[in-house]
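Pasting two entries for a bug report.
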Amino acid sequence: MMFPLLQAAAEYSKEYTGAWAMMGAGIGAGLAVIGAGLGIGRAGGQAVEGMARQPEVAAKIQTAALIFAAFIEGVALFAVVVSFLIQSKFTF
């Protein structure tokens, strides 16, 4: 799987600039989504654990967890948009 990428890197020319940018944008968008999924999952799991330990403050924990999830989702959306903007700069 890596051999074609290494071969393309060895034969670097001006035509490959856009291809590398497209690949970087795709990898960046994928990593942003994976990171957001892991972050929201971790925050949700810790929130449920905290509510199980102290049920009397469940409402405060739930509100904080929703706010954190919204922040994480906003950062992921921003990263995906930046990746697509990078991708749109290169045309063939």
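Entry 2 (this is the one that rendered wrong in the viewer):
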Amino acid sequence: MFIPQEFIKKKRDNLPLKKEEIEEFIKGVSDGTVANEHISAFAMAVYFNGMSLDEKTNLTLAMKNSGNTLSWDLDGPIVDKHSTGGIGDIVSLMLGSMLGACGLYVPMISGRGLGHTGGTLDKLESIPGYNVFPDDKLFKQVVKECGVAIIGQTSSLAPADKRIYSIRDVTATVESVPMISASILSKKLAEGLDVLVMDVKVGSGAFMPTYELSVELAKSIVEIANNAGVKTEAILTDMNQSLAYSAGNAIEVQEAVEYLANKRVNPRLHSVNMKLCTSALLNSGITKSEDEAIDKLEGVLNSGKALEVFAKMVNMLGGPSDFSENYEKYLPKANIIRSIFSESTGIVESMDAISLGMSVVGLGGGRVRPGDKIDHSVGLENIINLGNQVEKDTPIATIHAKDEQSFEIAKKRVLSAIKIGDKKIETKEIYEVIR
């Protein structure tokens, strides 16, 4: 008979956990025989003592197997990308379409906004009719016909993770690298992937507070996923400023469409997106060299094929058939759209990216409480870059707000988040790749 207290005691005393014990614990999490107190105590023991690679792998696989796993009958590699989140991170919308156009299949299970970070599902729900929770049959059909489908996590996918995360969230154990790794990968491995690319953010807007912890998380995920049989590499990318020109749901969707249409391409965003796409192509064996991968990606962008894939996915999941041509007609617009300006002369020296993200939340573009309704029209646009020279009255950002009061609050937050000084700084997008 499995006794949760004995299992927790072993981890408390930093003794090795057997595969069978971990599986029994997760089985109890799923069927309710393991209490919330047991989960809380186990999470705290892991927080302080960590886990071996075998323990992390076994925990991840047990959580994955707590629900349904997807299987595919397709003529190409199954790949996905996961980001640890940030400001203006719209890579999923372009990457999925571009990889689908290159012959890969991308069943992307995405999430909602969390804290200061935007959520891919919230962005997609700014498209009228887009169904982020299709049934399995439609999901598989869209992946097969488009090459990509971006949807939300159903209750049948890694349900043990959902319960464990809700308890970690209120017991100060969210920052545990083994638990974060298992939480991310249990859902990703349940997708039936051949290849996974991890985008681990670094900087003032990153989930992990230091570079060292970002590296630790990246290494942990790469080790576990490869140990579980999914070819994975992690790329550490910059989040000291907004990745895109914009931050906010409908505004980001518009920028993603304009990127795919080659109308407006942010160089920082393009650099990160191409690096992640290239990683997926190389690790899936579709291309043999980085140059070949870049040529293939530029080909699907320049030909319009990637935009066609995005448009077809949107339509098959309930959105307008002419969305890619007439996105401005369909996306909601804020009542007030107005620029704010620098109050001093100098160089944009630093940004508090979390404050920028929270300014979008304050406008109504994110949630303060889990059930909050989102205003998809609000956010920031034309956000200035680090290192830019500014004069008094140089535009810093354009605020999209529902009313004057929320505009003024956002203006104060944005201006206080952006520091103007006299120090020249160098910026980068890619820090390192962990294989």
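Dev reply: Rendering is fixed now. As a check, the viewer should reflect this: The first strand starts at residue 79 and ends at 83.
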